[in-house]
Design brief:
Helices cover 0% and strands 55% of the residues. The chain is mainly β and 119 residues long.
Length: 119
Amino acid sequence: QVQLVESGGGLAQAGGFLRLSCATSGLSLRGYRMGWFRQAPGKAREFVASISSSGAYTDIADSVKGRFTISRDNAKNTVSLQMRSLNSEDTAVYYCAAGLSGRSTAAYWGQGTQVTVSS
């Protein structure tokens, strides 16, 4: 059974920093493009960032470019999202995903972790 489990969410102040991690089981990350999406209350799910299977290439949404960094460790089967200069618009549930197809969908999803940014 494939499981993606996010951690690291919580409450941060505007201008602050959070690091999200995604641990996988039942699935080797090698060969999968991994990514993060988010969904704010009342809004559609939004692509945030993705990283190629080797880690050589990343794709970052314009809304977070320059503030968020995605990385992966295939040996540990983990993918991370470092978020800095947080603002209230970053408040959302963040989802880890594996096997992305473009920026719209993925083969596997985590349950999500809440990130709340207070101003």
